[in-house]
Task: structure prediction
Amino acid sequence: MWFFTKKKKAKERISYDIGAYMVVDIHSHLLPGIDDGAPDTDTSLKLINGLTAKGIQKIITSPHVMADIHKNTPETIQQASNILSPVLQASSVNIPFSYGAEYLLDEQFLDKLNNGQILPLFDDHILVETPFLYRPFNLEDHIFQIQAAGYTPVLAHPERYLYMFTEQELFFKVKDLGCKLQMNVLSLTGYYGKSEKDCAKFLLENNLYEYFGSDMHHERHLWNFSEFRVDEETARLLDKNYNQILNRNLL
Ligand SMILES: [Fe+2]
Result:
């Protein structure tokens, strides 16, 4: 009888709620007014409350750092955090909240790396992204340089890079080079499109992800994140990946 109970408990791990697989959110845009995420502290608070309502227990937010559009530095990010902190303290939000950044691998990235202008998400892990539509010609070199500087690259939402989905060996190659892969959980809802959803499932089938994130920017993201339930097939895929997803180790 005891064995039957154990077996049943193991099966209960399958959840149709995508938040249940994340626990710690390592990718979001919740600091007020410094990128295309929350424009003000009211929105920051609303999004953070929405994440906690879905069971997220810790948030490491990650404002964009780009040469052209979002020219953030460790100082601008810290200033935004200083604005939000007292608002969080005065509210009922009571979960650990910290920040790193999301770095676009653009022509200025290596300067930032070499000048020590890098904010890791945690430990030595830094979150990086590439353009959506085309492969940066120096992708492998960027990975190498990040590692040579003592960091571990975490590639944000690989399922959204259609140039990779059309050249699937690239996923395996960046993994082999030591890059960790982070899925946007909203990809599984079809929010970004069918190709992105199919690609996320392909990466799950091949056990290529180590981290999940919400990439929460605004209330539409929150609504999708809150309301969506994965289908049976996807729940089984998520369950199969459960042990290798490392988010909960960051609690
Ligand atoms: Fe992002």
